[in-house]
Design goal:
- With 224 residues, the protein is of the alpha/beta class.
- The chain folds into two domains: 8-136, Rossmann fold (3-Layer(aba) Sandwich), CATH 3.40.50; 139-221, Rossmann fold, CATH 3.40.50.
- It is built from eleven helices and five strands.
- It has a five-stranded parallel sheet, with helices on both faces.
- Helix 3 links the parallel strand 3 and strand 4 (81-86).
- Helix 8 (153-163) crosses helix 10 (179-192).
């Protein structure tokens, strides 16, 4: 993914032409963002990414789960940010989206200002998950307690700070540790929670998509 500047390129994935038209009109009037491409399915989006060169993929979740997973896997491997823009999703689709590095969710029923806030959060490499979505994904307290018990106190500190948007270097500075130690903590967290990312190695854990996934896991181990 390129470093973001004043203008960000978006690839929009939605099967409804009127939604794609309205999204484009909304961006033109509200944000300094360029809609570089439109796709009506995840498979079409995958084929367009190289030519569109987006900074961000905004996608509906109302697609076949296998196709959605293929898109998320592809965007993860290409270090692209992804934002869900949907209103008819299942818990399974939400989990696929966030486990594969999805950085945020905005309902199609939300105010334009919320979309603006979400886009700004992603531009700052922070996640955007509304409380109602977190509630739907959040497991029972007994499960959260079990997850919390298998992580060390230092790993829980790291999860908490990553969730708040701090980078690996910033977390290292706050905890008076070196960045290599923080990377090792992040890798250990992924291993303990049985998260299998494609070609995941310790050297990859500083990617924004890994931070987003760690933030998602915080739903399982941290209180609201």
């Amino acid at each position: 993914m390129r470093e973001h500047d004043a203008t960000r390129n978006i690839l929009l994935v939605d099967k409804h032409p009127i939604i794609r038209w309205a999204f484009d009109e909304m961006l033109f009037s509200q944000f300094d963002i360029h809609l570089s491409g439109e796709a009506c399915s995840p498979l079409e989006a995958i084929l367009m990414i190289e030519s569109c060169q987006p900074d961000l993929v905004v996608t509906d979740l109302c697609f076949d789960e296998q196709e959605l997973q293929m898109l998320m896997d592809f965007t993860y491997k290409h270090c692209l940010q992804t934002l869900a823009f949907s209103d008819m999703e299942t818990c399974e689709q939400l989990e696929i989206f966030f486990r594969y590095g999805g950085m945020g969710y905005v309902s199609k029923r939300a105010q334009v200002s919320e979309l603006n806030d979400a886009l700004q959060a992603l531009a700052d490499n922070k996640r955007w998950i509304p409380r109602e979505i977190r509630s739907r994904l959040r497991p029972p307290i007994i499960v959260r307690q079990w997850y919390a018990r298998i992580l060390t106190s230092k790993e829980l500190e790291v999860v908490s700070l990553i969730t708040k948007g701090f980078s690996v270097k910033e977390v290292a500075d706050l905890l008076y540790l070196n960045t290599g130690t923080i990377e090792n903590h992040l890798y250990s967290i992924l291993q303990k929670l049985n998260i299998c990312y494609p070609v995941l190695s310790c050297g990859q854990v500083q990617k924004p998509e890994i931070h987003a996934m760690i933030s998602f896991l915080a739903l399982f181990v941290l209180p609201f």
